Amino acid sequence: MALEDFAAEMDRCSQCSYCKWIPYDQVKSWRFSKNCPSIAYHNFNSYSARGRYAVARSLINGQSGYSDAVREIVFTCLTCGSCDVSCKVCRYNLEPLEMVRELKTRLVDDGQCLPEHQAIINSLNKESNTMGSPRSERGRWADELDLPHLPQDSAEVLFHAGCRFSYDKELQKSARTAVSTLRKAGVNIGILAEHEMCCGGRIYSMGYRDEFTRLAKANIAAWAKAGVKLVVTSCSDCYHAFKRLYPKLGSQIKVFHTVEYIDLLIQEGRLKFQHEIPLSVTFHDPCHLGRQGEPYIPWEGAEKKIKGQIVVYEPQKPRYNGAWGIYDAPRNVLKHLPGVELVEMERIREYSWCCGAGGGVREAYPEFSQWTAMERLTEARSTGAGALVTACPWCERNFLDALKTTGNTMKVYDIVDLVQEAL
Amino acid sequence: MDQISRLIDIVGNAGVLSHPVLGDTYSLDDRLILHNAPSLSVKPRNVDEVQKIILWANETQTPIVPISSGEPHFHGDTLPSVPEAVMIDLSSMNRILKINRRNRLALIEPGVTYSQLLPALKDEGLRVVMPLLPRGNKSVLTSLLEREPVMFPRYQWNLSEPLRSLEIVWGNGDKFYSGSGTFRGEKDEDWELGLVPVTGPGPGQLDFYKLVSAAQGSMGIVTWASVKCEVYSELHKLFFAPSERLEPLIDFMYRLLRFRFGEELFIMNRTCLAYLLASEPDKIATLNNTLPPWIAVVGISGGQLLPDERIEAQEKDIQDLARKFGLEMRPSIEGCRGDDLLEQIHRPSAEPFWKLRYKGGSQEIFFLTTLDKTPGFITTINSTAAEHQYPISDIGIYLQPVHQGVGCHCEFILPFDRKDQAEVMRAEALFRDASHRLFEQKAYFSRPYGIWADMIYNADPMTTTVSKKIKGIFDPNHVMNPGKLCF
Amino acid sequence: MTLPKHVYKILEDIVGARNISDDLAVLDSYRYSLAHTAIHLGPYYNTFTPRGAAVLLPGSTEEVQAIVKLCNQFKIKFKASSTFWSAQGYPSEDNTIQLDMRRMDNILEIDEKNMFAVIEPGVIGATLQAEAMKVGLNAHIPGSGCSCSILATATSYFGSGPSNLYGGWNYENLLGAEWVMPTGDIFKIGSLGSDCGWFCGEGPGPSMKGIARGFLGAKGAMGVFTKCAIKLFAWPGPKTLPVEGTVPAYRSVLPENFKAYTVAFPSWKAWADAVHMIWDTGIGYLAHRQFNMFGRDLKYAMVKILTDPTKTLGDLEELLKDPEVQKVTQDSMRDFQIVLVGMTPRDIAWQEKGFDEILAQTGGWKVEAMNTPEIRNWALLYLIRLGHKNLNLVFGGSYDGCFGLLGAVDFGTTHVEEAGMFKRDWEMHGAIVQAGGDCTMGPIGGQGGGGTGLWENFTCFDPSDQESVAGTLEFFDAATRYGLEKGWGVGMEKWNSQNRGPDGKTTPKEERDRIHLAAPQPNVFRYQNKVREIFNPNNLGDAYYETLDV
Fold first, then answer.
1. Measured between CB atoms, does C147 come within 8 Å of chain A?
2. Among B35, B417, C180, C229, whose CB has the most other CB atoms within 10 angstroms?
3. Would you say residue C356 lies in a domain?
4. How far apart are CA C116 and CA C107, in angstroms?
């Protein structure tokens, strides 16, 4: 789609500002009622979904042009999708998240790129990862695990580590833990190691659609060549890319997040927990596992009107509103861990507050990114929990970095680390 | 043409009185407020005559002072502050124009009194929320305009309730309808069609009826009002919650206000209740010895729908609540039966006016605050009284929650013997001193009569400035009761 | 004209560089489309409110005062808004500075005993209600929903909503307030002015709150309100709303002292009788004709969609064919919703009994299909939190209300059917949603204790479709003529025509004068003109504060 294809939506946006708050039914306090980090931080209307609709309209109508302000407005969108969920509590014919992705793509296509983002693209082009690290070292995190290395070895289940787990030495243990846990439960799982490439999800959300397509197609081809039937990942960003973006390019691979798989294994009785962990925890729903982790439903169609002016679609369009994201799997897992007590934050599930890492924001707007993370940590602390648990290395990294700047001692875990401790 | 002739032309011969007598003052107003004898009194019969008088007053720069209630007067708002004022006596504009059960509205003129209105409403199955024992000749409209507190906080969604639409003749002579007053309700078919004066605010973006509220006649004259009524119920009970201390009653009252239980809700000290109950002065001492120190009065109405069930539910619930605070709801207390008091307070005061029965004279200090702050103000009045050797046991204390409990009218009744100069001086000194101290303590004199006006307007220069500017619009020639408030 | 650089610099010094912008795209995100929602004029296709000179985010009363004083110095118009929903909060002239009050969003105090809260303009209904509930209190939420600024509804616009009859409308709930007047002077209204606290908005003496707002507020055209106290009322429920269900079909299972019903009546007379009896009896926590906004023919089908997370608007046609849906639709033709809340078990028992008696006496009935647990609990949450008011625009993205029939319910019920049928005929022209003609929504009780009703007939259209917009305008013009012929007065579809015209700017003076001179009391606007002259001598607002100088 082109940005102009959203012109009708730009006019139909309610201007209600629901995109700036969690669904109102879920508001439990003044303190934790906001949902959109970019407007919560920057405050101008332009930084919300409704504001970006208006900015987009202004741009496509030639009423304004690119500027530092416009670039900031567009690229500070984390593409977390919370605006999309809140909007769709009432609206059935608006797609704010898709629109803002298109807006980013338009800026990129028009050369309005940020140098920080360009550095990521350069890294991808050179080394197939977003971290600026050598491709040759991609599989080193699994050195001692003796895993099948695809495509030379075979395995039906591929563990995709993702760029963050591959190169972030502090977090790599969680990738190792994930794979070991699945193996222990009898899953025949392998990795692509240095052949693994970035999923492209991050750059998609930055507006680099062509680069994403190139990467995605390469990954799809690599999996086919390696005979992969199921991809498992512990990175929610990768999970979303594989599950929701790749099918548009022809992928038919089944995708699991590690936590989904662990939940399944628990239900099948293939994982038994022996050790008690006396810990109260709160769970942070990663955007790309939760509200953006809904199943993909292919659709090709057009708008039509019924009853005069009711805008619907022919055929019926699938509705992505966060209803069917992966929320229960991690909670089921936590409930099964002996001694672990789950205390929920106010903003959870489809209306969870973003960690601040996505959309290229961490790289280009570190102060804003860290503020977003701190906001979440404040919310986590307010529950009285001893630890914040999540299921995405980007979330985890952003939280850990934020804690370092404040000297706060709250513990942050990847869920698999607690699983291993309990096994 | 001289004044008198001009006015006779307007209101007729019988409507003009030369050198009217101001009447006896039973309070300290004549000492507290500098005033002058009026030169004339005129009695208009309708709004057209009122308008003509006001236009004449503008033309001749004659100060005019509206008055609607009968004597005795209190608070000093009807004492002319300037010489050569003409009193406009609205008491003969006393028609009840309409009572409509469906919309629960009564349309009244300014001379309509509570004595007149209450039985007429009852005949239609209605009642009006009223203040505590007003004088029988008190103008209903004036009472509501002056924001006198009513006994029924649950019906006060705003402080002006139950006042609704008005017909106003402004000080500039302009006849105007506030709220939905243009729906005069003069035609029966309008009532059937629902074209009724049920709204108070506006029209538009100014709240005209607020601008004449508590204005002491300094903005204009209201010649007609619609008043919202409540349903009359035959089944109505009154209970007492006696207490040695005030604090549990305050907590209990807050709970009732929170739940919006009860009809009449107020608190009194024994002295105040004694003044209310005693028909003669020598009964007061006896009552003071038998009544509990503090009493909450709680009324319950059955309404018109399933009244027995309603009364039963409320009675039991309120009793449960009372017990939570260590109190008991009783249908009577020594010295008073609830039924008797109910009958009394559903009527205007019998003669003599209840506040005057003890010593023949009475001065009140009243202001708005919140209920939880009242003990502090009571301490102040008591200590000030002690300093002035005024007997604390003579102070009647009446605490009336208003605006559904957001605020509380706090009133101290200070009786004195008008014939005893020493008592008069003592009462005056107490009144002045206590008023200042209470004001320093943040008592809100929202109805600033007499000396309170200077206090509050000096402390709030912005309100003073704004008020004067508004006065300049609606009474540009300053003919309406000059010298009152900050004008 | 853009702001002169030196003026921009001074403003930047006042609010900080991060809180001011004159970037064109930013400014365009602060423009409102006149093909959009509830603007009470037009609609006009591809027409927007004027672009502001700059947008500022003040953080305190002091900053607001400094800005306003500067505007007076340089004769620059300014307009503040809190949530920017409705054209009323937007400039009517070029070169107007826009104040976005979002940063001033604190709940300064909740006085639990005396039941009021002190708030800034950026506080919305949802957050105030959530905080109030923690201490057993509730806030009245305006009909436009809990996304709206409570201060704005109380000081600057209307403030009517479903909980009018118990909670009072926000005209009644406005207590003390802090007002930066158009000159930059700060006026503390009521008890606040003499430092006696926030609890009373009246007095001293004649209540100068009367110039802050009347039936309506000044809609941002007379200075900026920076704080106010708002009266609250009892919430005998859990400290947090327990919400379950899958988005968007959230619902709340509340204790037994909370009941939600949809009731219907055999005739409009019976409907009006029941409403009067409810008011006479003093029951009801919240009462509104809410879901009828989807249209007589569509409402139940819409409720089925909204309470089922697997359904979308695309399921509407199929649902309308369902005989069961058709039956309920017919059954609930003359309906409204009511929530009963008891402070105690006896209280709710009595209220239920009383309400059943009212239904018995008027021939009304509870619409059983709306009382299934899922729908009932959805309706309860919907009505209490009022967080789904974006549904006003669900069909095509825009709506406005026509007719209005504001007044006693005998007035409204006499004419609602006729108005509805007039609209139904126009629906068949295709420009507006075909919803059955009667799409009226409004409170059961326009103020505390009841007394009046408002019948806003929802007209839904597509703001991106030029024909739909033009057709809607044509319908509204016809509705205005019809209403005037019938003696109903000018309807809601034109309430702001005297403020803003088809070019998005102030209605020409001749037209404004014509409209005001035709009003029942033109002096209303002459007095407002005098007030404007005195308190806004440099005329830095706009025609949303209506004046007449002839």
1. yes
2. C229
3. yes
4. 11
Phi, psi of B179 (to 5 degrees): 60, -135
Candidates C262, C231, C233, C215; CA nearest to C166 is C233
The per-residue pLDDT for C160 is 96
Give the mutation candidate from B147, B157, B198 for the C interface (greatest C CB count, under 10 A): B157
Whether C298 and C379 map to the same domain: the answer is yes
Q: Which residue has the tokens 């990114």?
A: A369
Give the distance from residue B283's alpha carbon to the nearest chain C alpha carbon, in angstroms.
37
Same domain membership, residue C35 and residue C96: yes
Chain A residue numbers touching C43 (CB-CB < 8 A): none
Number of domains in chain A: 2
Q: Are C142 and C60 in the same domain?
A: no
| Model confidence, pTM | 0.97
Looking at residues B160-185, what average pLDDT do you find? Answer: 96
Q: State how far residue A374 is from chain C, nearest Cα, in angstroms.
A: 19
- B-C contacts (CB, under 8 Å): 290
Contact B53, B88 (CB under 8 A): yes
Residue-averaged pLDDT of chain C: 97
Question: Chain B contact for C437, CB < 8 A?
Answer: no
CB of C205 within 8 Å of a chain B CB? The answer is: yes
C319 touches chain A (CB under 8 A): no
For residues A133 and A19, state if they share a domain: no
Cα–Cα dist B103/C445, whole Å: 12
- A17: CB partners within 8 A, 6+ apart: A48, A50, C83, C84, C85, C147
Measure in Å the smallest separation between the Cα of C128 and chain A Cα atoms.
Answer: 7
Nearest-5° Cα angle at A351, A348 to A357: 85
B453 touches chain C (CB under 8 A): yes
How many domains are contained in chain C?
5
Q: How confident is the model at residue C1 (pLDDT cuts 50, 70, 90)?
A: low
Per-residue pLDDT reduced to its tens digit, B142-151: 999 999 999 9
Q: Which parts of chain A register pLDDT below 50?
A: none
Q: Give, as one character, the DSSP assignment of residue B397.
A: E
* Cβ–Cβ below 8 Å for C197 and B473: no
Domain that holds residue A208: 126-267
A-contacting residues of C 454-483, CB under 8 Å?
460-465, 468
Is A12 contained in some domain?
A: yes
Model pLDDT, residue B335: 85
Range of the domain at C47: 5-103
Distance from CA of B290 to the nearest CA of C (A): 32
A96 and A149 belong to one structural domain: no
Helix, coil or strand: residue B463: helix
On chain C, the residues whose CB falls within 8 A of the CB of B443 are 196
**pLDDT per residue over B15-63, tens digit each?**
998 888 877 788 888 888 888 899 999 999 999 999 999 999 999 999 9
Q: Decide if A325 is inside a domain.
A: no
The verdict on residue C365 lying in a domain is yes
For the record, the structure tokens of C361 come out as 């006496």
Q: What is the pLDDT of residues C380-434, one digit of tens each?
A: 999 999 999 999 999 999 999 999 999 999 999 999 999 999 999 999 999 999 9
DSSP state of B150: P
A31 and A157 belong to one structural domain: no
Question: What percent of chain C lies above the pLDDT cut of 70?
Answer: 100
Chain A residues with CB under 8 Å of C126 CB are 21, 24, 27, 33
CATH of the domain at C360: 3.30.70.3450
- Tell me which of A84, A112, A140 is where a domain ends: A112
Give per-residue pLDDT as tens, B341-375.
999 999 999 999 999 999 999 999 999 999 999 99
Mark whether C404 and C372 lie in a shared domain: no
Q: State whether A68 and A130 are in the same domain.
A: no
**In which region does residue C286 sit, left (phi positive, over 0), alpha (psi from -120 to 50) or beta (all else)?**
beta
Select from A213, A245, A267 the last residue of a domain.
A267
Task: Please write the tens of the pLDDT for every residue from B173-228.
Answer: 999 999 999 988 888 888 888 889 999 999 999 999 999 999 999 999 999 999 99
CATH of the domain at C218: 3.30.465.10
Show which subunits contact C, needing at least 3 CB pairs below 8 angstroms.
A, B
Assigned domain for A324 exists: no
Closest CA to B139 of B184, B89, B197: B89
